[in-house]
Amino acid sequence: MARRLTPLELMQKLVSFPTVSRDSNLPLVDWVEEYLTSHGITCHRHYREDDFQAALFAHVGPEEDGGVVLSGHTDVVPVDGQPWASDPFTVVERDGKYFGRGTCDMKGFDALALWALVEAQFSDIKRPLQIALSYDEEVGCTGAPPMIEAMQGPLPKASAVIVGEPSTMQAVTGHKGGIGVQTHVIGFEVHSSLAHTGVSAVMEAAKLIDWANQVNEEEMAREPEPLAAMFVPPWTNAHVGTVEGGTANNITAKDCHFAMGFRVVPGQDKYAWRDRYLAKVKEIEAEMQVVHPDAQIKTTFPYDVPGLVPEENGEAEALVRQITGDNATHVVSYGTEAGQFQEAGYSAVVCGPGSIEQAHQPDEFISKAQFEAGHQFMRDLVALLKKG
Questions:
Q1: Is the pLDDT of residue 306 over 90?
Q2: Is the Cβ–Cβ distance between 54 and 46 less than 8 Å?
Q3: Quick check: pTM over 0.85?
């Protein structure tokens, strides 16, 4: 029988796969399936439409509903241009920390979840345990919904999901949702000396970007609703992270591309925010077409992530609080796949080792203390599952 790897050995192996979202995660999935199968655990896959990425999920314990899902993602953000002190895809221990891309977000948790699944396989658990490892979380949580749908049928329906994003092992019961609008402004090129006869895609895009500034100022000045007041910041914000466009300094720009994103507090309709933005797009487009009829603005929607709404008497929350002893209220402004599980009928909570402050950073790390806290959590979880 294959040797059971320690959580650290599992994390070292997972980090060694450079599963940046633009690259395939299949080598990692192959290894995880081989490892779990070697311990008698049946695995299931769901492939992305292009077969370039795959999710993996598995079940141990009684073949019945009501189990617990440990949910993680396999992809990591790029390391391009970041000043790392060591190889990002090799776990290096320094100063009480484990450095490596994904140690915090979130291959540290994935390793702990794999350890717990194998441990549960060899324990007489009375309540099932499942694992769900998704793809494309870092590009808008687009891989989880088809994975969750694929889980229905092959696996008994679990009732509680623990999404292991870094929360310093606190029980996070709410987070903001998000929706993105990829925006392509198409202008009309003329020499810049005759700019009034052309349409600059860059300058028209600037109007939409400045609209985001105006909206943010309005939201900051508004009295937050009680649920929104739990968050930092306690409002929905609009943001543009990158802009690309233009040909030369003396030509009105033909094209400009940017992504408008909204982080929406629970209780607000993220589609209302989308529609509000699209109304502004139509207004700017009409002004452009007065100058030249070929000018236009095209929009697509690369991601749509539901928020996690605090549950009344939530099963997942109660389970995590029972293990950790954490009775405080915690919400976060980043998004996770927890809201997607919640929309699919699961009770969901976010709880994982490490701090979000280290996620996506050069020299990303998880502290040894946090990793051990996560390990103890998994020991206690398996012990609870043995009691039923």
A1: yes
A2: yes
A3: yes
